[in-house]
Amino acid sequence: MEDGAVIAPPEPPPLPYSLHTRKKAIAFFWILFVVDTLGQPIALYWALWYATDLSHNLVFSIVTATLGGISVFEYFYRLYNLFRKNSRARPLNARKSWLDFFQINFTIVWLILAAELIAGTVPKEPHVRLVAMVLPTVMFYFGAVYLSLDIFRMLGYKAPFRISSTPKGSVMPTALYALIEDVVAVDGGGGQMYRYALRTRYLSSPYFRRMLFEMNCFWSGGSIVCAAAITAIIFTVSQPVAYTLGWSLPFAWAGIWALITIPWVQSDLRREKKAWAENRGQGGIPWTDDITAPTARTRFASVQEHLPNLLPWVREKQSAPSTPSADGAADGASAADGAPAPDGTAAPDGQTTH
């Protein structure tokens, strides 16, 4: 072995976070969220609209006033965690006033929903179908934004601004990476330690990046298609049915997608580990988000071999590993902001050591 050579670890860099130890907290949150966002608006609508003499405008004023309590709490909880003094949850190497990417989109979508609900409930006779579009609107928004990031990534665009822990000017990150980083670090309590560990895994494993890319296409593309189908249903069926389906079908879609995702990700993580052990899970420019880096076949690629026409637009460009150049080295330095140095050393707050 040559002097100074870096010995690759036998497994991909670990992610110091486990859902198994947080099952009760996760279950408690999702029960409250489903009751608040699914059960409450539907139950109040049917009870107040058909079992009382209240005006339709007042019915929807009550429904919208009680809507989204959990989401509002989560919004301000995230703001507090990101802005508080000595916060350990904000993006790596970001200034105190910088929000993470999820919080920015959380804010924008809330403004859109507020306008939608006001327009739907202010008239004396509310626009029931418009109020039923709240969740499909969220699906359209996040699907379009997160799918756009990966389209720009495939086209070779750089990040126009800091996207969570990815600095401005770096390779556009796959959107699911930014989402997982933000949600686990802030909402899940993983903090900057998790942001740093995830970035280490992301930059060191081309297989992991491709898995996140394919999974984001699955969720974002599915979100847009399903939202379009739900919208068509809302503006076709009767108003009571439209309202009920508009608030319930998105949860049915999310449940089905989650059931598909769990075994899919588990299988891909096993494949990544195997590829890494065989030294086929690494490639391209080290510690760089190299979208041309070769990698072992993912589960999706294996399925696509049998169905060659299945979603061909989700393929990233594949080519032989490029030789590091001055430009590549510059991109690597930019992408590694907040990521480990080649020897894997780092300070506790996510700063790299050289």
Quick recap:
The protein is an all-alpha fold and 354 residues long. Helix content is 60%, strand content 0%. The chain has one domain.
Structural class: mainly alpha
Oligomeric nature of the chains = single chain
Number of separate strands:
0
* Residue share in helix: 55-70%
Region (Disordered): 314-354
Keywords: Membrane, Transmembrane, Transmembrane helix
Biased composition (Low complexity): 322-354
Transmembrane segments: 25-46, 58-77, 98-118, 130-152, 217-238, 244-265
Protein architecture, described:
This protein has one domain (25-316, 324-335). Helix 1 (23-51) packs antiparallel against helix 2 (56-65), helix 7 packs antiparallel against helix 8 and helix 9 (206-234) packs antiparallel against helix 10 (239-277). It has helices at residues 23-51, 56-65, 69-83, 101-121, 128-131, 134-154, 175-187, 191-204, 206-234, 239-277, 299-306, 326-335. It has 12 helices and no strands.
